[in-house]
Amino acid sequence: MASAACGACLREPPPFEQTVCAADYAFPWVGLIAEFKFRGRVELAGALGGLLATAVRRAVPPRPALLLPVPLADARLCERGYDQAWALARVLARELGLPAEPRLLQRPLATAHQAELGRAARQRNLRAAFMVDPLRRAAVRGLRVALVDDVMTTGATLREAAAALRHAGASAVDAWVVARTAAEAD
Asked: 20: helix, coil or strand?
């Protein structure tokens, strides 16, 4: 689903060029995403990733050189048992014929759960939470990359991840998400 920039993005442009979103974060997607993300239903990655791949095909964004999942901190990965953004990125890579890298973008800081925080707290919570693997920074230099995630609420996570990629030399960063909350949540 393509849409014009929201008011918050017009006031403070994000470090990513565009967002491709498959659905509004509402019924039935909110329940399916919760099952996928919090209840171990990794098999839903195929359906949700397929939905996002369809949205990408419809939006026809500039083709990225690389797909990168928004990473989980190691503690969160151990808690959850799998990385839902990587599961989605694998589906997109297969369906769209794009390379994907699971550990190029890293999240060395274990931060508080974003779902429990408001907009300003989310932004503070994520400062310096992401980095590009220091030994592989050249792997993003000069490239357009697409960040893949399940839900975009305030955009704080995607902003920080994109900023880390831009700092490492990525020429452009796009955000591809399964669902996005209503603009009022921003």
From this structure: strand
CA distance 76 to 33: 17
To 10 degrees, what angle do helices 45-59 and 29-38 make?
130
Domains, the chain, ordered by start? 12-185 (3.40.50.2020)
Cα separation, 70 vs 105, in Å, equals 7
Q: What is the pLDDT of residues 106-141, one digit of tens each?
A: 998 766 565 565 656 655 656 678 999 999 999 999
> Phi/psi zone of residue 51: left (φ > 0), alpha (ψ -120 to 50 degrees), beta?
alpha
Token output for 48: 């949700």
Backbone angles phi, psi at 152, to 5 degrees: -110, 115
Nearest to 56 by CA among 103, 84, 97: 97
Q: What is the pTM of this model?
A: 0.86
